[in-house]
Amino acid sequence: MKIIIIGAGIAAVSAVKAIRQHSKDIEITVYGDEEYFPYKRIRLTKDLSYGLQPENLLIQKESWYQENHVRFHKGTRVTGLDPAVRRIFLSDGTADEYSSLLLANGARNNVLPIKGIDKKGVYSLRRLEDAFDILEQAKRSHRILIIGGGVLGLEIAWSLKQLQKEVVVVEALPRLMPKQLDEPASKVLQDIVYSCGVAVHTGTQTMEITGDDSVTGFITDSNLKEHCDMVIHSTGIRSNIELVKDTGIRTHRGILVNERMETNLPDIYAAGDIAEYQDRVAGLWNVASLQGEVAGSNMAGFARIYEVPAAATVMNAFHYSMFSIGQVEEKSYDATITEAIAERNIYRKICFRDNRITGAAMIGSSRELPALKRAMEEQTEISESYERNMTVSEFLLFLKEKQAKKQLLQPSDAAAELPHIQ
After folding, report:
1. pTM across the whole model
2. Fewer CB near the last or first residue (10 Å), C or N of the chain?
3. What are the phi and psi torsion angles at 371 (to 5°)?
């Protein structure tokens, strides 16, 4: 049996691990179009200010692929595939054949139809080469515009600020990180960003990037006109589904998959930022890792079902830790516990529906995340002991004690394996 994996991100690496866990004999070939072994893409925005050392970003060392008998082809782009004959076509003019295929070729950054977005000095950070280009241009730039006030745009803004650059963020929606934070939390975050010297304009859309050949400024739909000599846009992703056009593989925003990460064609799977499950392309690192693991297990003949995890967004920037998990917007819950300390820029909110935790957002710390994530994934019911007048700290203590008690009451693995006596 021969498995081919198209793509070289965390979904691919997780799939390889799962395959090798179940079989040492299956042939595995990976094709990646970058000149690097799979690296931690989520580190790019965070590590800009520290410089980028590719060897420190690798998910696994080069020797790991050799030890696991993986044929890894760097810098090789897959240009097409023919499911009828189980064949893929490569940028060097050759072809390869598979028994089972995993599409894990990810996504690219979305490009908004902004006038002048193709000028010199405009960048988007998705790949390691993008990061190198941004750092090189930043050396020559003084004032940098970030289009997009989501987590990645803010992490880039913070990295550039640490490089002593003047930074301005423009977000079209009314507040920062609108997908992860409610309005009060966004206000706290904006105050933190301001306090670190980063200018923020929300509720206004960048309409034009000015300049002849190179960037000299920008104009928004509220007629805000300001100078800048570099632009970085971070406005979402688009799955790389062009590869499967006219193959019969069903797509929407991404490649449609079922709970086994299977597409509609036999022996073809998809995972990561290219996969769409239950009308959603998650675009999150931990989700891509889990989907790759599920796909790899099923490709190796070990049946496994994908269960949507309680996905969290974590950001460490502007001297603060913060996270969001689940749903925190109004109408997504029927009760909350909230704590805000304005003078310390601390905000903590836990949301409930039907006596279960459905989401949380916290600014000032991320240590509460594991307990909340576990409670959400286990659908922990808290109706008997939970008091609505608890503080956040009291509830978190109660939750951890409840989880510790449950752990103690669970039978050991050894006991669970003992046969039942009739």
Report:
1. 0.91
2. C
3. -65, -40
